[in-house]
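Recap for those who missed Tuesday's class. We walked through two folding examples back to back. For each one, the amino acid string is listed first and its predicted structure tokens come directly after. Nothing is annotated here on purpose, so try labeling regions yourself before you check the end of the notes.
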Amino acid sequence: MGGRAVSAQDDATGRGAAQSSGLVTSRIFAARALRELGDGFIAVLLPVYLIALGYGPLAVGAVATLALLGSALLTLAIGRLGARAEKRRLLIAASLLMVVTGLAFASASAPALIFLIAFAGTINPSAGSVSIFAPLEQAVLATAVADRDRTRMFARYSLIGALAAAAGALASGSPELLGRFGLARLDALRIMFVLYALLGVAGALIYARLPPEPVAVDPRASALGPSRRMVYKLAALFSVDSFAGGLAVQSLIALWLFNKFGISLVAAGVFFFWSGVLAAFSFPVAAWLAGRIGLVNTMVWTHIPSSVCLIIAAIVPSLEAALGLLLIRAALSQMDVPTRTSYVMAVATPPERVAAASMTAVPRSLAAALGPLITGALFSAGHDAWPLVICGALKIAYDLALLWTFRDVRPPEER
């Protein structure tokens, strides 16, 4: 009787833990979907909106640089607070900042205000996971599942985010559709920034329904401890990759397509939608591949071919060839996202995970912040292909360095 009672109690405890884990992951996934929907259309519309306000390519690059730089500093602060404060409250605060950012962009036009909002807000010109939300969400999710399920869970997390971003890219054609009903182009663009703010409200409501953290937060906790050296090595390598990626963020790829080939906003939205869809469905493939060849090998051997496609796309003369190569790149280039996140969470101890995610993200954001300004300057000088070529070459160098440095450092599930 006693044995059966204990067994039943254990089963009930296991079911309760599974239900709590499912609740946490489903709500984090839903909040990310809403946020990425907004990032998806903002990344495409940001250069269009700034040009409509009278800004040139150099200023567009400067705004993207300030946005990435501000995101890096906010992420660094989140990393220091994450070990000492409840993550749910930090996520709600970040969502409210998203609300303020959208409303401020919709109403501002003066250069000083635009630059300030870009720096202090949550605008993401890359339509990727570079944001203050990511370290907090990743730490919460990594704690909610077992090691053997971690990469698959992050693949689903990335899949949902990418599909939402793809839908957002498709929605970036909305201002042109609204224009057919007589709405001025600038007003239609401002409506999209208001929509971005409303998505921030919805995200805050979802985060507010997360359960309390199972372990009490220690206000004296250290951000990084035994994993410090490993995290710093990863951060240094990731910064090279992100500097390269900053040369070809989605907003600037959109500007490149507008300038070189003259495609319409609707066509650009359709292209970035399919680009996002291909990236999204590469994530489950990445998780499957990682289970067979390992996380580091998956990161490297899917990334190199995507960089080759980017280099070739920069120099081909036809729109069709360039779009085809960019779509192939989209199907390969993001397979390192869930695997990279899973790897960082694996090499860090649970109390260090927010700090580890932050410390690997901050150098990436700082390095990426330099890229858009350089690209804007090169575009202004008429060197349209160079940013894409440099981006691809630097990414290949990063991949080879990552493979050499971490080929023998394996996460628990691969040992």
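Example two. Treat it independently of the first, because the proteins are unrelated.
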Amino acid sequence: MATLNVKNLPDTLYKKLKARAKSERRSVAQEVTVLLGAALAEPKKLSILDLEGLGKEIWKGVDAADYVARERDS
């Protein structure tokens, strides 16, 4: 496994990181690994059906890609 050294980390940032790690019952190194993993993870692809609010019921059962293709062809 690789080792990462961080230079010139501001004290205030380290204190926040340490407090967060403590609240999550992790070491500082484990917390950094979790935070970097989350920050660099592929974003979840959203579907029209995942959207909240107006229009959700209109799209239920509709394939968005087919709908867009039909709209473009018309």
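Answers for example two:
DSSP finds four helices and no strands in the chain.
The helical segments are 11-23, 28-40, 56-59, 64-73.
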